[in-house]
Each structure stands twice: as C-alpha cells, then as structure tokens.
Design brief:
Chains A, B, C, D: Belongs to the tRNA(His) guanylyltransferase family. Chains A, B, C, D: GO terms for molecular function: GTP binding; magnesium ion binding; tRNA guanylyltransferase activity. Chains A, B, C, D: It catalyses: a 5'-end ribonucleotide-tRNA(His) + GTP + ATP + H2O = a 5'-end phospho-guanosine-ribonucleotide-tRNA(His) + AMP + 2 diphosphate + H(+). The structure is a homotetramer of 292-residue chains. The first copy, chain A, is α+β, with helices and mostly antiparallel strands and 292 residues long. Chain A has a domain of 188 residues: 2-Layer Sandwich (Alpha-Beta Plaits), CATH 3.30.70.3000. Helices cover 46% and strands 21% of the residues of chain A. The first copy, chain A, is built from eleven helices and six strands. The first copy, chain A, has a six-stranded antiparallel β-sheet, sandwiched between helices. In chain A, helix 1 runs antiparallel to helix 2, helix 7 packs across helix 8 and helix 7 packs parallel to helix 9. The longest helix of chain A has 30 residues. At the C-D interface, helix 1, helix 2, helix 5, strand 4 and helix 7 of C face helix 1, helix 2, helix 5, strand 4 and helix 7 of D.
C-alpha cells in the first residue's frame, strides 16, 4: 500500500506529495516498536571488563604480506600502535596487553563508559583498532602494501577480583611464552637447520620447554633468554603521568602581559616488555589496578 | 614468587632455564581457569540477526573531511563499498541497508555462522567495515586525505518474524526519508537562501513534511521527489544470481585438449535505491527472506 | 563503626537514639547502590515464552509416597490441579501441557506480564505450582500424608514461531508416549510377569515401539491404544469461553425490584487428553495461538 | 497427518499400531531440535549469587489471614522455618537474611551447584521455600487455616566482592529498620492512640527517625530499642558446626559387641537477630564469607 502511494507520488501534484511525506513520517512511528527488541547487555558492576581482539585468518594474512618468522617487528609495532589508538580514545582502559595477533584491553572496574554496555565497548574497541591498523599500516610496512582490509574479532570477559584479572593477564603472557619458544625453535630448524616445516613439526613433537631451550642452545647457539623481551614477554601498555613544562601568556591586573612556565602532568601511554606474571611490575605500577 | 624465578632466569645457567620454562608452561594451566569466565551469548535460533553500525562522532568527522551537504556522494559510495566488503566475507548476510552514517546487516534466520555468537558476529562485521572504510577511502575521496582513523559502534538485535524484520528495515528507511527531507530544505535555506544555520533551524521549527516540500518547491524550485533516489531511499544490498560464461580447458580421453564454454551462476551483490517499505521490492526479490 | 554506635544505642538516652536511627536511615541510601547490580532479563518480544517445571528427585519422592505404577491417577490429578492454579493466577498462559512430573506453561507471544522479565515469570510459576501442590495434596492423596515439602525446578525457553512452539509441544507429547509405553510394559513384566526390575530392564533392552506393543498384547492381553488417553497423551490445559446464566436483582426507576437472568461469558480452564501433534486439535481451538 | 495416523490407530489392528508407535518415536527426534532454543544463563564465576524472594500480594494475604500488626511472630517464624528448609536442601547457601515477607539466600562465591545456572538456582530456592511455607503453615498458625496457596517471586543478583555483598545485606537490614520503626509507630497510633490509618499516615508524614522514636517514647512509653531484636534486626541464618555425641555399636574381632560413644561435628543452622551492618558479627563468624 505504502509502495503504491510512493510510486504515485513520483508523478504526483504537490498536494499529494504532502500526503505522501506525512505518510512516511507517520509510518516511522508505526515501525518504531521494533526498537524494543534491543536487549540490555550492561556489564556487571565492579568487575574488570576485558575486551580481547584476535586477528581473523592471520596465518594466511601474514604469509600474503611477507611477515618475517618467528616474529615480525613491523607487525608487532603496528599492533601496539593500533592499541595505543584505542587507549587514546578510551581513557578508562587501565592496561592493555598484546602478543602475536591478539590484544586485550582492560577497562577499570569502576568505568561507566557507554554505561558499561558490552556491545558498545567491544565494537568500539574493535572498530578503532581495525581502522587504525589500516591507517598506520604504511608507517610500519614501508615496502609492503596492504593487499586487502584485515578483520579482527572481539569478545568481552568480566573479572570480579584483582586476582582473577592478574591471572587472566598471566594466562596470556604464559601463552606468549609457550608459543614464542615453540616458534623460535621451529623457525630455527627450518631457516637454519634446513628442515621442511613438517620435519620441524616432527622434531618438536613431544618436547617440553627444557628440550626446546636445549635444542636452541646446542644446535643454534641461541640462548632463548637473550631473545628480545618484546618477543618473549609481549607488549604491556599502561598510562604514565608525564610532566611537561608549557609556556603560557598571562596578563595580571595592572601589569603587562608576560610569559610564565607552567608544569602540568599529562597522561601518556608507556609500553613495557617485561614480566607481568610476578609481583614486581604491579608493585612498581600500583596505580594501575583498583583495590578489590 | 614466579617473578623471582623469572628474574633469576634471565641470568641463569641452562639447567635453571629449563626449570623456568617448565614453570611458565605449568603456570599456564594454573591460569587457564580464567577461561571459564567467558559467557555464552548465542543468539536465539530461528530469528533474524541484525547488526547495525553507526559512525561515532561523524558530525565532526564529516566537517573535518569536507563532506558536501546535504549529501556527499563520495561518502555514501564509500559506506556502500565497505558494506559490500562485509557481505563478501559473510555470505549469510541476506540483505543490508544503509543511509547516512549507519548500515544494518541482516543475517538469515537459519544462519549458523560463528555458532550464532552475538559478540563474534557484531565485532567481525564492525571490524571488516572499519578496516574497509580506511582501505577504500582514497578510491572515493581522491582529493581529501583521511586525517585519522574513524570508529563505528555496533549492536545486535534479533527479530523473530518476517513482519518484524520488514518493519525494522521500514523504520530505518522512514528515518532516512525524514532526515533527508529536513536536510535538503535546511541546506537549501543556508546555501541558496543565505540564512545562517540557526536561522534555518528557526524557519523549520514546527513544520511538517508537507510544509517542507512546499518550501522546497516554491522557494527553490526543487521537486523533492526528483532528488536522487540514493539520497531519498538509502542503499539496499542483496545477493543476485548472475550468470557468467567462463572458458575452461578440458581434455577428454583419446582426444586433444580443447576449450569449452561453461555457464555458471555466481552470487553477486546488487545495490538498490528504491522503496523497501511496500510490497513490491519483496515480491520482486522473494528469495531474500525465508518464510516464517 | 556503625556497629559500635548500634551497641551503644541499646543502652543510650533518647537523644542518642535519634542519632542512631538517622544513621541507619542514611546508611540505607549509602548501601542502595547495590541495586544496580541487578541485570535485565527481559524476554525477546513477539516470542512465545515457555516455562517448564520438573519435579526434583521425584523418583524417590514417588516411591516414598507410594505412587502406583506405571501411572498414579492421584498424582496426575494433583499436577493438573496445581497447573490450573498457575493459569488462574496468570491469564496470559494460553496453553499448558503436562506429563509425568513435568508441566510446561506457554505465555502468549504478546504478553507483557511482569514486563516479560524471565526471572519473575519462571519464579512466579514455580512458586504458585509448588505451594498449590502442597495445598491440594490432601484432596488427591486422601490416605497418604505428604512426608516433606517437594521441590520443582523451572526454566524459560523462547520460541519465535508457531511452528517452533508446536514442535516444542509435540516433543513433550512424543516424550510422554515413549516413556509411557516403556513404563506400561516394564510394570506389566514386573507386576504381572513376576520379573525383577532388572530382569524387566533386560527384556526391554533394544526393543522398539512395535516390539513393546506386541509384548503387551501377546503376553498380557493389553491393547496399548486402549490404555487411558490421560496416560498416553498427557494433559493439555486451555482456556474455554463458557457461558453462564446468572441471576441479578435490578430496580428500574418507578418499578419494583426484580430479578433478571443475565448471560455472561467467562474464561474457564478445560483439560484435554488428546493428540496435540497433529493439526486437528489446533484447528478446533484456533484461538489458542496467535498468528506469526 | 500424524494426527490422522493417531486417530486411526485407536481402532487399528496391531500391525498398524507398530507403525504408529514408531512414528511417534521417530517424530520425537524430529522435534528435538527445539532443545537448542534454550539459552545458557550461567552466573559469572567467583561472585556471590544472591537469590531474593518476595511475597506476592502479601499485604492482602496478611490481612486475609489475620496477621498481627506491626509484627506477627508466627509469620516470621514460618518464614524462617521455610528458609531453613531451603538451606537444608542447598548446603552452598552460606548465609540467609530475612525480614517482613522477603528472604535472601547467599550462595558462596565458589559454589558450583546446578553448574551455577541462574534459572535452576532461583527456581529451586523459590519452589522449596513455597512448598515449605504451606507444609509448615499449621505448625505456626495453629488456629488460622491457610485459605489459598501463596506465591513468592524470586530474582538473582551477583556481587563480585565481599564489600558489595556486605553492603547488600546492610541494605536489607537498614530497610528492615526503617520499615519496622515506621510500622511500630503507625500501629501504636492506630491501636493505642485511636487514630484511623489515614490519620496515622498523616501524623507520620515528613517525620524523621528521631521524631518517631520520640513519639513512641513520649506518647506510648515505648523505648524502640527495647523492642524485640527479631523485629528490629530481622533474621540471619548461618551454618554452625555443632558437636554431637552419638552411641554406636561395634564388634571388635574376638570380643563381644559393645557400645561406644563417638563425637562427630555436624553442620546445623543457627538463627541470629543481631546487627549485621557492623564488623562484629562478621568477625565472630569469620568463616561465613570467603576472602576476595
């Protein structure tokens, strides 16, 4: 019915147009009931809200874009740069941790950003990260053009206590360690040892961490613990209070305008490549987490 | 405790490294319980799943990037191109509708993509759309560089019946109409009528659709219904079955290799700028929706 | 702190009491933030809301209360009576279906009872059913006292279409059939055939429905299809419009008071023990379900 | 279709019965897909799970059953008895608190009862409470028969920290205090002061706690703080370890059977009517809550 009206309208005299336009306007309110199908997904109060992103099909993506193995410094830099862009836009992220093609963003437990709506939080993080990844690509991959737009998926997880949150971050860092140790040996066997990838896989089957350290040292003279911390520990981003001196012009009453130097503190993002499983990091940056 | 071990390890002889590495590996399983804090957000079966994206702070974004008013053909083209990129990656999107800085993606009610997990669906759509928006920017804004990475937020809404889904799409198209009519008059008053933006707002206060049509016609000789359909109706994307003839080389037994022409049907995305409130569109494309 | 005040207060002169009382009152508002930890569990609009109850540990309960096997008419009657009590209190239940120790209540898809909050709907149904089960016990179990308060658990499931809802009810009725056929043979073997329960189980292992019908007929001369419909089909409760004639006293102006007979329609609950898998029941009671 | 088969079956020879029965059995698996419409409602790990029950329409219920005002000792006793029945059936309830017609049950944060499924937890609590309320009615209301089955609704709320949980319980106890003080004055004005209920309401409008204490003391010679603690503080139920000495018969080898006394500890529910806002109660019963 509405359609016919609409069709008529295209050729209609002005009086009928009015009717048509009103019709659509009125129709809008008739349709607006569909709004009530949205459901509330507010996150439980007083819990840390973690948004974790993972690259989709990044195995293939990394091959197509010539990522160096086992670690590509450009890719890790771009990931961290994109994560910074997320934090810059959402100051309630108190800590972020990334490794490989994943990044986790921790919103402080008292945040009220987007009224704690899970869908808003995770889509905004994912969107900002994804657009930044493309936007900053050329800064990191100066020789390698981006072939197609990549995609990340995201999820939200809540943690009620500081212990739970720290265990979450420890879980991700332990995962980083395990994968990176494996990859370091694997690619040494392939790149320096001349094995095929399936031969390398075979060699590593059933080995424990100690065996892998041993193989690296005895066969390739690599001390795993001397590998760059960025690869072994991942990237932890937190806010630092940095002091800056800025020059301001002021004009006191009955005086000439003059310049004064004002010290102000500004939040800046700092990247760390250190252990976050133990106590030391958290003692040194005791302001990052709120108390239970 | 773990930290001390870790710290020691950095300077440790190889035997201790082994212990350390094992420690982290074992630690991982100790931390893995945090996985169980993830909650299931599977969407109710047999409902349409709609993911709607909205540009964040696009009022400011459009000003900073010199969008033409009331409609910028480049921006609308880029939005549609990004939406196509989403559909190409997720074939279970049966229809998508966009207008202004928003786009809605409708997953067919029987989809099992990502096991219907809401967070996966909405973040993947948002990510693909956002990275595509940056990736294809220069194709549409040839003169205007992108100044910073933009962001979109997303949400998921379920619709149990075809009527509900059609009403949702009608709601968005009625919204397009109302806003576009307003903007068309508003910017005519400003750009051609020489009014300030606040004067134009004042003129339009309390007018109904008919008044606006009248103003456009009598003052600016614009027949609103002759304005481009793309502006008045938004963009609807659906899958079309397109036939293509491809040439293949075959080699029958006991014969020489030869070329044959094979007709194959391929799904292609088609854009429409027409009314989707009435019956006609849905009758002409009856395969888009499944029956209740 | 508050505690000390409170303790002092017990022995305190009146002036201090005032302070104390104010303290608690003010404290209340200090504590009230905990309200915001409640989450919204509104059911998706335009879906049927099914609340299904199951008896907890009813195997043991039925033994302790001497339920007759395979079916206890008193127990089935009490279940239906309790279900009626639920429907009487919640008129938006359009149909209820029960068998064995379970009962399902279907709220019409347009219901707005308790603002469609899942927790309110399921707990109110469960509560009303449970208290009714105890309240009406003695009407059905005239010789057997209730030994302890029984418990039922509940759940909420949404169905978007009439087909889905009908399939849900069919699922429950098919379950009734399968269990009842099994139980009928099982208890015939035990009660009439003199087998132990484990021997009866052994006899029935691997048999299909046809075998069981055969055993009943050839060994016990029981035609399964002549067994009471209540046992084979379960109990379906729907609303009937019943006409009643009531006598009212009226006093017209300038006349003496007189009695008149008024016909009024009242909703009454009707119990059916028939097939609800096929079309017939739904055609005969076409008002029970709303259209999609 | 199936229906017709079914109808035929009633009068059918045995061979057809077999077909029919198979039909229903097979149909069951055809319908079983409806199971997948159930959604997961697992409660977030490491949070206290609170189930709160409220009497429905208890204002009317209490009038119809002649509850004494402002407090009916029988009703409070019955509420506590029903709550005990809940705790006896669910040992993971670490503390319960009740006042007026409400009762809250706190499941310990580490509970895995019903796999932490919210619907199971709240319906089981509600059901057990409701059936117990009817079952034990006559023990408390010896002269007043129960006129109809009452109903309670329930809800689930999660609290991530001990502070949040304690604030929840404080909120309920502060509510108890405020209501009970009001009711004590209100009913003194009505029962002893001879005011109508609306006059009493009028007198109390705008008064603060101190005023109410004053009125009680000066007009009715009631020291509010001497009122029974049960009324002023509500009822808190926790588990106590009680030692019991039991007599057992044992028969050592080569000896005659003899009786020995064995001491065993058993969990028993203890009721308290004291302040739970301050520290003292929690210090004295430090095992009730787990650490954060």
């Amino acid at each position: 019915m509405l359609l016919k009206t609409a069709c008529v309208c295209v050729r209609a005299p002005r009086l009928q147009q009015r009717a048509f336009s009103c019709g659509v306007a009125m129709a809008k309110s008739k349709f607006e009931y569909v709004r009530n199908f949205e459901t509330d997904d507010t996150c439980l109060k007083n819990c840390y809200i973690v948004v974790r992103l993972d690259g989709r099909n990044f195995h293939k993506f990394s091959e197509q874009h010539g990522f160096l193995k086992p670690n590509d410094k450009r890719a890790l830099g771009l990931m961290a740069r994109s994560a910074e862009s997320v934090m810059d836009n959402m100051e309630d992220v108190c800590v972020a941790y990334g490794q490989s093609d994943e990044f986790s963003f921790v919103f402080k437990r008292s945040t009220n950003l987007f009224k704690r709506r899970a869908s808003k939080l995770m889509t905004h993080v994912t969107s900002q990260f994804s657009s930044s990844f493309v936007f900053y690509w050329a800064e990191y991959f100066t020789e390698q053009p981006l072939l197609y737009p990549p995609s990340f998926d995201g999820r939200v997880v809540l943690y009620p206590s500081n212990r739970n949150l720290r265990d979450y971050l420890s879980w991700r860092q332990a995962d980083c360690h395990i994968n990176n140790l494996y990859n370091t040996v694997f690619w040494a066997l392939v790149q320096k040892g001349g094995l095929s990838t399936s031969q390398a896989e075979e060699r590593l089957r059933g080995t424990v961490a100690g065996d892998k350290n041993e193989m690296l040292f005895s066969e390739f003279n690599i001390n795993y613990n001397s590998e760059p911390q960025q690869y072994r520990k991942g990237t932890t981003l937190i806010w630092n209070m940095a002091e800056e001196v800025v020059t301001k012009k002021v004009k006191p009453a009955n005086e000439n305008e003059k310049e004064v130097h004002v010290t102000r503190t500004r939040r800046k993002i700092a990247a760390h490549h250190c252990d976050i499983i133990g106590e030391q990091f958290w003692e040194e940056h005791s302001g990052v987490l709120e108390s239970d």
